[in-house]
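Archive entry: two folds, one per protein. Generate the first.
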Amino acid sequence: MQEQDSRATSYTTLASGGDFRHELEIKRSRFITVLRRAGTEEEARDLVAVLRRGFHDARHHCSAFVIGPDRSIQRSSDDGEPAGTAGIPMLEALLKRETAPGVSDLSDVSAVVVRYFGGVLLGAGGLVRAYSESVSAALDLAPLVRRSRLRICSAAVPHAAAGRLENDLRAAGTVMAETSYQDRHTVLRIAVPDHAAAIAAASDRILQLTAGSAGLTAGGREWVDEPLT
């Protein structure tokens, strides 16, 4: 589960829906990379366990993962390869991945590279390049999304004005959450980025659209996936 009080209010991660696999052959060695979205260390390590069973005859199952909005959990394993030639290059490929110009914020990702040795020694430098390139090539193909922490805010308005206000908010690009209908008014809920400036701007918009008759109350937080733009 994402930290509600993390410093980061958004980051990039894999799209939900399954594992992403890519294979490279380098000097007759097969490097099979599998990426999985993982929100906990347990989920990340589960991918290693699954692939150890699925590729039980492979020589190495090297791994790296980074977890949390602030990327506070970072682990890697060489799994028998010379120290520093597999897990760390894989981790650096995750950490240094640019998700936008000048932005490296990929997280909640577990990467495992299964290696079938082809009989040709690659040397330390060759292994570093092979494991780094394997993860980078898999990321090139994997769909990514923006994971954003949103604040759910609410405004109570008269029933007669609720429909028009909701249409105006949607037209302005506001993300609408659940609407509830009570005896005397309708409660419109909107989702805004979880920082003071965005909440203040949303409150001003509500005041303008209702001629000052409705205010905005900030509520809880939710993490949601949004398309990358």
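Generate the second and append.
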Amino acid sequence: MPLVDNFTKLLIRGLLAGLIAGILAGGVAFVLGEPHVNAAIAIEEANSAAGETAGHSHGDEEAPLVSRDGQRAGLFLATSLAGLALGAIFAVVANYARRITAMSGPLLAMAIALGGWLAIEAVPFFKYPANPPAVGDPDTINQRTLLWLATVILGLLAVTAAAAAAKAVSAHEFLSVRVAAPVAAFLVIVVIGYVSLPTINEVGDDFPATLLWEFRLSSLATQATLWLVLGLAFAFLTERATRDADVAKKFALR
């Protein structure tokens, strides 16, 4: 059944689904990501100490504004706020998308979640994967941030093109064409964007490769959890609302 609720109900549903997704994503980040962050910080501190021992001290370093304990405590707050923000955006997209598709509410929710993950996480990740502390030149942070934003825009364009292609061939008799068209549209735009954007690799040769990829995989798992739970929670709440509405109608007819 297509989404029929008003926007206010969709927004509340999106916020609730986003909060649940944010909390669970925070748990994944804490369990999988924090050990790798600690290991990377230990490497950074060891390198700094070695530099000072070799006579390259830069004087007293400023203490971090937020301690590691504070950062850990704020992790769940950050992921929860991110989930709420994404949940609100999710509701807006769902409210618009239901006007141009006949998908059922739960299926539409999962499709939006997949598109969001591809655009905002997968496309940027495979071009500019996340790096742990001690990796990256502080002088290039602005450039890297702008390039990451460029890949997010690239991902959004690719997902939009895929959706448009899927709609254009939705009436085609061959299933292979209905599948291949959106996939091809997505890949063409992503490949062109990847080739056009510069490559950045600031990982030192002495940084442990295993730790690097474990950190990146934990980052990917955190984002995948966020989007998967967001889609599933929104779909579940939609199905529950539909069931409750059907039950209310049956009682009203009696």
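Annotation attached to the second fold: DSSP finds six helices and no strands in the chain. Residues 38 and 68 are 9 Å apart (CA to CA).
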